[in-house]
Specification:
33% strand; Phage tail protein beta-alpha-beta fold; four-stranded antiparallel β-sheet; 4 helices; single chain
């Protein structure tokens, strides 16, 4: 009788150990699944000048990730461009949030928390004016931070204001009919730029009443006449 009781007890203990091993294996499998979900899930995305909040929604539709954030975060309205292929979330988000004061934190079940980054660098406001060779203000000049989508145009007085992420950023000034100029800020916050007329425009031959001249040599008013206007 005692032997039978020992056998039953041993069998019960064996079953408990097997159950514990199966539970441990299940937990390890679940943990590994979550880990690989974050590290191996890859996304391809090409989108231009779109608010970051909308890009988050696009990422959610393309993957199993879910983004949690406060709608009052100002960085959500920042417009940016993304062009990635087979990229992980850790490759996409740093680029997406680069020009904002936001950062991210990954949690379980593919949940990504977006929050304000207290250590984020603040944008620097740059002001300036663009003129031509004679000193006249130039309106409609494109002012772009090199290698980014950050840009603006000059107003009727040739003035502009732009926010840059780095005090050493390079501004690119361009306008049809003028030579493009690149200017390194080198920590400065005020910029005055002079654009010279492009060589191609200066060398154009114009018909005048007494012959032909180059535009660079003309001092009076001129008019362009097409063949069909004669």
């Amino acid at each position: 009788m005692k032997c039978l009781q020992k056998d039953v007890a041993h069998l019960h203990t064996t079953k408990v150990l097997i159950a514990m091993k199966l539970m441990l294996m299940l937990l390890l499998f679940t943990f590994n699944l979550n880990a690989t979900g974050f590290s191996q899930h890859r996304i391809s995305l090409k989108i231009k000048k779109t608010e970051i909040s909308e890009i988050f929604r696009t990422l959610e539709s393309l993957s199993s990730y879910r983004f949690l954030y406060n709608n009052d975060l100002m960085g959500l309205k920042t417009k940016t461009s993304v062009n990635v292929k087979d990229a992980t979330i850790d490759e996409i988000l740093p680029v997406l949030l680069f020009h904002t004061n936001m950062t991210y934190h990954k949690m379980e079940n593919n949940l990504v928390v977006i929050k304000e980054d207290p250590l984020a660098r603040k944008d620097i406001n740059i002001t300036g004016q663009v003129t031509d060779s004679s000193g006249a203000p130039l309106s409609g000049v494109s002012v772009q931070v090199k290698n980014t989508d950050i840009g603006t145009v000059t107003n009727n007085e040739g003035r502009f204001t732009i926010s840059v992420p780095d005090g050493n950023s390079i501004l690119v000034f361009s306008r049809v009919g003028y030579e493009t100029v690149e200017h390194s800020l080198n920590g400065g916050t005020s910029v005055n730029i002079t654009l010279a007329a492009s060589q191609a425009v200066l060398d154009q031959v114009v018909v005048v009443g007494y012959g032909t001249q180059r535009k660079r040599d003309l001092t009076g008013s001129i008019a362009s006449v097409r063949g069909g206007d004669c």
